[in-house]
Fold this protein.
Amino acid sequence: MCRGTAHRESHASRLTVEVQERIRYGGVPGGPVPATPSFARLLRRLRLRARLTQEELADRSGLSVEAISALERGFRRHPRRATRALLADALGLAAPERDALLAQTPLPGRGPQLRPASAMPQGEVPLPPTRLVGRDADLERARELVGRADVRLVTITGPAGVGKSRLALQVAHELAGEFEEVVLASLAALSGPDMAGCAIAAALGAPAGPQPLVDRLAARMGSRRLLLVVDDFELLVPAASLLAELVARCTELALLVTSRRPLRIRGEHELALQPLGAAPAATLFAERALAAAPELRLGDAEAPAIAGICAGLDGLPLALELAAPWVRMLSPEALDAQLRERRLDLLAQGAQDLPEHQRTMRDTLRRSYELLSEEERALFRRLSVFDGSPTLSAVRAVYEAAGPLDGELLQLAAGLLDVHLVRRDRRSDELRFGMLETTRAFGRELLGSAGEADATSRAHERLGDLT
């Protein structure tokens, strides 16, 4: 449902000075974000391996924090040799790493070669074409977990469109120097759990043979320090036992998995991503809007509309990226109004290099919906009739009045929580369930197409003060 004017204005007031500067001058200060050059990747990799913050490296090298940041972000592509020597000394590098930094070339044999996604061989990790926005804390936590010797399996979970795959790719690139090999197995196009092992084998280049698949995978990995990124695992969770066996047999294997629901196997560490906050969401929208329409000028007058767009789209990165190109036709104010009326119709036509289910919000939400049982789907549809975060008693009233369902309510609700189609509202001590606005709009479409809208609405109207 639409957000009130006061609510949108409160989000506008939360835009930081950084975001205001970005949109006031038509983009990121200094111009568009450049593609990250090899020196920037190399410097960041070496700094992280040394477990130094940018401030600590600046203090050791005698450079400013701003200079370190500019080098790692690629704004200074060709630093002087004296600058590179200061950094090499501060990092305590020995040959050949010192020579690589001084020569401004990537280290040989340290992690995957980074190429555009269109040229990627099977198993190689693609270099993300856009910068990661608003995920510094999540990135730091993911790097810390994956880099720990006592953590063998990390699963990045979260709602549809929150950016799980994007974060995993960033983690893989930043930790490439810590592993002998980094391999990506993308499972987005697979439909059955029996295919998971074959996809992982193809990504690893495991040879064919008469031995059981798990034996061939374990032999391919051996005792080498290897990071295996398994993307889009949610449809194949029944195959999680294969991952558990690989972790048990390959003592130097680290697994980084993305999934809309946890794997529920021993040793799993879950990192649940939340939507972006107001300021990073506005930054992401502004950057994508300016990429689509470089001539656009976004100033203070547009800030409330941008804040409204970001709030109405719940700070979901995919939704913001799908909405941003509309600025070629609509002003931010007009786009905000259109999204409140027909958001799912506008959140379509995503980039052609995205997986098919991520090119529209309907498709990416439908993928989560299809993970549910029939009874869980019915509960999801009926929950969408609520505008806010209903109490358990209110949910039960609608759940029962709109037609009987098999299954215990709490257990069914837990299934929705598991795939992040609903979320526990933790602002109250009382158990309440909430939905992101875009998810609610999808649920209401399904409610109507299932012929349940009238009965559910009547049950909702009879609730009185239960909500």
About this structure: Residues 372-461 form a domain with the Arc Repressor Mutant, subunit A fold (CATH 1.10.10.10).
